[in-house]
Specification:
By secondary structure, this protein is an alpha+beta fold. The protein has a single domain, classed as Fe-S cluster assembly (FSCA) (GMP Synthetase, Chain A, domain 3, 2-Layer Sandwich). It has three helices and five strands, in the order ββαββαβα. A three-stranded mixed sheet has the order 3-4-5. The longest helix has 16 residues. It starts with 6 loop residues before the first strand and ends with a helix.
């Protein structure tokens, strides 16, 4: 029997690590819950590899920054895609700020 290397359209298959992603999400969510001055109950945390995506609503621009800083501080996080917004910010402003 001959075994071939897994591939997707000729490219090596991506290794999925759902347990690792779940662990990273859990650690980031735990970190956010412990940050003073941050109401994290409306923040969704999703890990894709070592990149964390934060989405949802917080009360202020300062809380958006606190959340991103806290997520970056978790061991294993290499990038943070911060999609958090405040109720009074429109989505176009949030998208522009995210790209800066």
């Amino acid at each position: 029997m001959v075994f071939k290397q897994r591939a997707f359209f000729g490219d090596p298959a991506l290794e999925e690590d759902p347990q690792g992603s779940a662990d990273l999400e859990s650690r980031v969510a735990g970190m956010l819950a412990g940050v003073q001055g941050l109401e994290a109950s409306e923040i969704d945390v999703v890990a894709s590899g070592t990149t964390i995506t934060l989405s949802g609503f917080v009360a202020s621009l300062e809380e958006i920054e606190r959340a991103a800083e806290a997520a970056r501080a978790v061991e294993g996080v290499t990038a943070v895609d911060n999609r958090l917004t405040t109720p009074d910010r429109d989505s176009a402003t949030a998208e522009r700020d995210r790209k800066v």
